């Protein structure tokens, strides 16, 4: 049976809810919070603001596998609160990424909750233990730092 893994991150940024929502509702901003060495490229054309059912195609560099297509669907959008991006095509057997923002005393709390399943059974679990888990930690640490820089500059 496939094992469902979870990655959870939360951070508070000193900003207001409207500014935070304006940032996360634009799929173009994903490029700003993705490490350069991932060879990340958005392939599909993007509107200014996401919408339910929107499909976004990316290309990402994966060690030993090269460039891979990743197609996400944006869904469950709740204005100024939350949305989900769910992988339709990509490197994972299952990927469900819930994003939430909430106004708190010190600013806005950003929450990322990713549930994912590795492909290839036992081999995928070995790849996760050896590489994928650390890579995801690194990506989300980079995102945390990039968000702090972005909101400090506006």
Walk me through the structure.
The chain is an alpha+beta fold and 154 residues long. It has one domain: START domain (Alpha-D-Glucose-1,6-Bisphosphate, Chain A, domain 4, 2-Layer Sandwich). Helices cover 27% and strands 40% of the residues. It has two helices and seven strands; from the N terminus they run E-H-E-E-E-E-E-E-H. Strands 1-7-6-5-4-3-2 form a seven-stranded antiparallel sheet. Strand 6 and strand 7 (107-117) form a beta hairpin. The chain starts with a strand and ends with a helix.
Q: What are the key terms here?
A:
154 residues, alpha+beta, Alpha-D-Glucose-1,6-Bisphosphate, Chain A, domain 4, seven-stranded antiparallel β-sheet, 2 helices, 7 strands
List the helices and strands and how they pair.
Elements: E1 5-13, H1 17-24, E2 41-42, E3 55-62, E4 66-78, E5 82-89, E6 94-104, E7 107-117, H2 121-153
Antiparallel strand pairs: 1-7, 2-3, 3-4, 4-5, 5-6, 6-7
Any idea of the CATH topology? Answer: Alpha-D-Glucose-1,6-Bisphosphate, Chain A, domain 4
Q: Report the biggest beta sheet as strand number plus sense, adding barrel if it closes.
A: 7 strands, antiparallel
Rounded to an integer in angstroms, the radius of gyration calculated over CA atoms is 16 Å
Structural class: alpha+beta
Can you count the helices? Answer: 2
Mean pLDDT: 94
Per CATH, the architecture is 2-Layer Sandwich
- Largest sheet, order of strands side by side? 1-7-6-5-4-3-2
β-sheet strand percentage: 35-45%
Elements, N to C (H/E) = EHEEEEEEH
Distance between the termini: 47 Å
Task: State the low-pLDDT regions, or none.
Answer: none
């Amino acid at each position: 049976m496939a094992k469902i893994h979870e990655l959870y991150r939360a951070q508070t940024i000193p900003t207001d809810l409207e500014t935070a929502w304006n940032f996360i509702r634009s799929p173009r901003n994903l490029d700003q919070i993705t490490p350069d060495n991932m060879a990340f490229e958005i392939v599909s054309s993007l509107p200014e603001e996401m919408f339910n059912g929107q499909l976004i195609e990316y290309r990402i560099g994966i060690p030993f596998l090269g460039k891979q297509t990743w197609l996400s669907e944006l869904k469950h959008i709740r204005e100024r609160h939350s949305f989900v991006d769910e992988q339709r095509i990509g490197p994972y057997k299952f990927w469900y990424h819930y994003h939430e923002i909430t106004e708190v005393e010190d600013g806005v709390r950003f929450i990322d909750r990713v549930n994912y399943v590795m492909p290839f059974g036992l081999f995928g679990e070995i790849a996760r233990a050896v590489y994928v888990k650390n890579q995801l930690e690194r990506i989300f640490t980079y995102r945390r730092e990039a968000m702090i820089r972005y909101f400090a500059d506006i």
